[in-house]
């Protein structure tokens, strides 16, 4: 699983009106800190016409820096409008934009260097960042999202499975959570991510577990 998949993964909760900020520790399989991720969201209330999401990830290993930024704009129903990506993985730097055009039947992916590709789109399309909040919204209403196509550079087939109620350790305390499995199948890869969501009214993501080549990394909400 590439560093890009970490963007599915996020971890003190700050709420003020319709704005939310989440901060996570990114940890090695041994439990040592690898870095941090922060997710800032505007317009969470039901009356919002559009929603804005931003993710910043700083997770590095010796000799290899990962510093990514993602900004998404979506409609009130969590159908994506646009996704901007800035990636820094070691010496590799890339920037691109995905524009969702359901009326034309495609998602247009544009690189900062001028390249452009079109990916077929049938109706509402969601990017990976927007999907996190769509999932929370559905769970708050007692629903589990169905299988769908998610866009994050390429098109990925995503399915959700509920694995039951449990509890997780965060800091010095234990919190009730629902354990979920998300299966992600792309053009050349297939992976599974586990998410532990709080049983609070906001369905706050508490822990993500992501399998990478070096082992299963975790993203844990700061408390």
Summarize, please.
The protein is mainly β. The protein has one helix and 16 strands.
Keywords:
223 residues; globular; 16 strands; mainly beta; 6% helix; disordered N terminus
Task: Report on this structure.
This protein has 223 residues and is mostly beta strands. The chain has one domain (3-221). It is built from one helix and 16 strands. The protein has one helix at residues 128-140; strands at residues 14-16, 19-27, 33-42, 50-59, 67-75, 80-89, 92-101, 106-111, 116-120, 126-127, 148-152, 154-170, 173-185, 190-198, 205-212, 215-221. The chain has a 16-stranded mixed beta sheet that branches. Residues 1-17 have low confidence and may be disordered.
What is the averaged pLDDT score?
Answer: 87
State the share of residues found in helices, binned by percent: under 10%
DSSP strand (E) fraction?
A: over 45%
Counting helices, strands and paired strands, the structural category is mainly beta
Report low-confidence residues grouped into runs of 5 or more: 1-17
Could you say which overall geometry the principal axes of the C-alpha atoms support? globular
Number of strands: 16
Domain count, please report it. 1
Main sheet characteristics: 16 strands, mixed
H-E order? EEEEEEEEEEHEEEEEE
Termini distance?
28 Å
Radius of gyration over C-alpha positions, nearest whole angstrom: 17 Å
Put simply, the count of helices is 1
